[in-house]
Write a structure and sequence with these properties.
Length: 433
C-alpha cells in the first residue's frame, strides 16, 4: 500500500519537430527514428517538415504526416494494455467473489505498468532521476505522509478535500495525456491533419506544436473532464470507477515521465521506498489511516463486503492497491525496457520502440509474481501488507538473475541512461560529420 508523492510535470505535449541552432532538427522521440530511416532511403528530409511561414499563413502548406503522426505511434505497442485496463473496469459491476479484487488489481496494475513502460521509451528525458534524488524520494514522501497524518488527526484543516481536488486536477491532466495517443491515431484516419503553429522555444529553437483546439485535444479534454466531474459529482459505483480511471491515467503518465539516470538510481529508489512502505505499514498506523481517511484518486479501489460491527481498516468498504505499488515498480520495469533496447537489441537511437526483450518481459512476470505473493499473504494474515515488500525483491532479483544468465551482470550494474545533454552533443557531432 505504498503512497508516493509525485512532482508536477509539463502539461503540454509537442507533436512536431524543433529546428535549433545546432543546425540539425532536434526531434521529439519517434520523429528522429523515421527521419533516419528516410535518410537511409535517400528521401529528401528537408521536404518533410520545412513549411514556410507564408505557406502556413496562406493555408497552402500542409504539415507532413510524419510531423503529427509519429508521437502517437507508441500506442500501437501498448493498445492491448489499454484494452485490458479499460475492460477490467467492468469487474466490480459483474460481481464480487473471493478473488475478484485480486484479479482486478492484477489487470489494472499490470496494464498500467505495461502501457507506461512502453510510452517511457518514446519520451525524451526532461530531467533524469539522479541517485541523490532517488535517495531523497522516500524521505520526502515520508515527511509528506506524516504531515498529512498530523493534519488529519490533530487539526481541523480539511486536508482530505485539498488533496482530493488537487489529485483530480492533476489526475485529469494525466488522464488526458494518456488518452492523447489513442485518439490521435483515430482522428488522423478520419480528419485531415491540422496545421501546426510556430512558437519560439528554449535555446532559440522554433517548435511546431499542435493547436490547443484540435479535434483530438478537444475530445480528450472533454472525456477527461467528464470522468473527473463524474468522480466529484457522482455517487456509488460511478465514483469509484471514475476514481480508478483517473488513477490509471496518473500511473501511466508518471511511469512514462520518470527516468532514473542509472540502474543504481532505480535500485536505490525501490529500496528506499521499500523501507518507507514497511515502516509506515507495520511500524505505525500512518499509512493505513491516511489511505482510508482520504478519498482521492490516488489508489485503485474494489468494493468488498464488510463484517457488521467491524472497526478500523476492516470497516473500509474497499480493497486498496496504492498507485505507488504500480508507479514505483513501473519506473524500474521501464528502465528494464530501456536496458533491452541498449544491451539486447543494441539500438542507440535516442527514443524509439523495440519489441519485448528478456529484461522487460521477465520484469513483467516478476511484478505479477510479487503482487500475487502479496495477495496470498494478505489473504492468510487478514492484515494490510506493504506490496513493495514483495515486489522489490522479485524485481531486483529478477534483473540480477537474468543478467547473470546472459553474462551481462557487470554491464547491468554499470548501466546508465543517456542524458538529454549527451543526446544533443551527439547530434552536434553527427551534424559536423
Amino acid at each position: 500500500m505504498a503512497f508516493l508523492s509525485t512532482p508536477a510535470f509539463g502539461l503540454g505535449r509537442r507533436v512536431g519537430v524543433n529546428r535549433c541552432k545546432v543546425g540539425k532538427w532536434r526531434m521529439s522521440g519517434l520523429e528522429r527514428e523515421t527521419v533516419r530511416k528516410e535518410e537511409d532511403q535517400s528521401v529528401d528530409v528537408e521536404k518533410l517538415g520545412r513549411l514556410s511561414v507564408e505557406e502556413k499563413a496562406s493555408g497552402n502548406g500542409t504539415p507532413p504526416q510524419s510531423e503529427l503522426q509519429l508521437p502517437a505511434k507508441s500506442v500501437g505497442y501498448a493498445w492491448p494494455a489499454f484494452l485490458v485496463g479499460g475492460t477490467a473496469q467492468i469487474l466490480p459491476i459483474i460481481g464480487k467473489t473471493n478473488f475478484s479484487d485480486a484479479l482486478y488489481f492484477f489487470l489494472v496494475g499490470a496494464s498500467a505498468l505495461y502501457a507506461g513502460s512502453k510510452r517511457n521509451l518514446t519520451e525524451l528525458p526532461v530531467d533524469d532521476l539522479s541517485p541523490k534524488q532517488a535517495f531523497l524520494a522516500p524521505i520526502v514522501s515520508g515527511v509528506f505522509l506524516a504531515g498529512m497524518y498530523f493534519l488529519l488527526r490533530y487539526t481541523s484543516i480539511d486536508v482530505g478535500q485539498i488533496f482530493k481536488y488537487g489529485s483530480v486536477v492533476f489526475g485529469g491532466i494525466c488522464l488526458k495525456e494518456t488518452l492523447d495517443p489513442i485518439f490521435f491515431n483515430l482522428y488522423t484516419k478520419v480528419f485531415p491533419l491540422q496545421p501546426v503553429t510556430k512558437a519560439v522555444g528554449e535555446d532559440g529553437c522554433e517548435e511546431d506544436v499542435e493547436p490547443w483546439n484540435s479535434p483530438k485535444n478537444v475530445t480528450t479534454a472533454l472525456i477527461s473532464a467528464a470522468i473527473s466531474g463524474s468522480y466529484l459529482l457522482g455517487s456509488g459505483a460511478i465514483t469509484f470507477m471514475a476514481s480508478n480511471l483517473i488513477g490509471f491515467g496518473l500511473a501511466v503518465r508518471c511511469i512514462s515521465l520518470l527516468k532514473p539516470k542509472s540502474l543504481w538510481s532505480a535500485a536505490a529508489l525501490l529500496s528506499g521506498l521499500l523501507l518507507y512502505d514497511v515502516f509506515f505499514v507495520f511500524g505505525t498506523d500512518v499509512m493505513v489511516s491516511v489511505a482510508t481517511s482520504i478519498e482521492a484518486p490516488a489508489k485503485f479501489l474494489f468494493p468488498r463486503e464488510t463484517v457488521p460491527g467491524a472497526t478500523g481498516v476492516q470497516s473500509y468498504p474497499f480493497a486498496i492497491l496504492g498507485l505507488g505499488d504500480v508507479v514505483v515498480p513501473g519506473i524500474f520495469v521501464a528502465m528494464m525496457a530501456f536496458v533491452d533496447k541498449e544491451l539486447v537489441f543494441e539500438d542507440d537511437r535516442e527514443v524509439c520502440q523495440v519489441r519485448n526483450g528478456p529484461y522487460f518481459s521477465s520484469s513483467m512476470v516478476a511484478y505479477v509474481a510479487g503482487l500475487f505473493t502479496c495477495f496470498v499473504v494478505n489473504a492468510v494474515s487478514h492484515s494490510p501488507q506493504p506490496a513493495l515488500l514483495y515486489l522489490v525483491p522479485f524485481l531486483l532479483g529478477n534483473a540480477l538473475a537474468v543478467s547473470a544468465f546472459r553474462g551481462e551482470l557487470m554491464k547491468i550494474i554499470k548501466f546508465e541512461r543517456q542524458s538529454q545533454e549527451s543526446m544533443v552533443n551527439r547530434m552536434k557531432k553527427e551534424e559536423a560529420e
